[in-house]
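Q: Methyltransferase type 11, please. Structure only.
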Amino acid sequence: MYYDPIKKTLGQVFNRTPWLRRLFYHLLDLLLLRTWHVHRELRRWAKGRTQESLHILDAGSGYGQYTYWLSGLSAEWNILAVDVKDDQVADSNQFFRQIGRRNVQFAVQDLVLYQEPNSFDLALSVDVMEHILEDVEVFRNIHASLKDGGMLLISTPSDQGGSDVHDDGETSFIEEHVRDGYNIREIQQKLSTAGFERIEARYAYGEPGQISWRLSMKYPILMLGKSRLFFILLPFYYAVVFPFCLLLNWLDARTVHDSGTGLIVKAWK
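A: Structure for Methyltransferase type 11:
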């Protein structure tokens, strides 16, 4: 099933007013378990830095929710958010101008080609690398674009059931994925090959997170893939499952997992 048409429809609904877009971002922050893990790592990175003039790259910005969250932490930070989708970049630039966040700029860029040497203190890549075949080239470009001591933060599916693939004969239900998930050693090796000197990787989406992901993401996406009429039923569906998903997300984000369907990776130049 192709996920991009559903994402585009959601974007069209919530792009109608700045208030709706802000609401959309807050809902994503609560529902998406990866956001819980990514925000925790970003808070650690940001501690003691909010008064510094820093440069951040959102590498594969999508809807722009992480750029929105980061730009709210400090007006001193300059954020460049890049994506390959022209419409999302245009919508995001318009929204951020409307809300007056002048420290943010969105641009159309291909991460396989984009490089801005020694420019950024932080780069983040959230649910992007499973969509890009030439991953080592992207890692090399980000490494070159970071300043010395700069950090790359990655969230991506693992090979322990990421994309809901558990056996060799199965494929991801998201057609846009070029890989189902990374082996934890594989991604560490690729980052090392790209030049990163210090790398930390851990599992996310343990048992609580996997249940939450199915309830909050997989089942609704499958329903919307069958018919857009399910948009009418979504508020009622989430009214039932939302409290359970919040509890499961909270448990997953506060547990150390021996295995999981997601990876959180940090790498320093």
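A: Brief note, in case it's useful. The radius of gyration is 18 Å.
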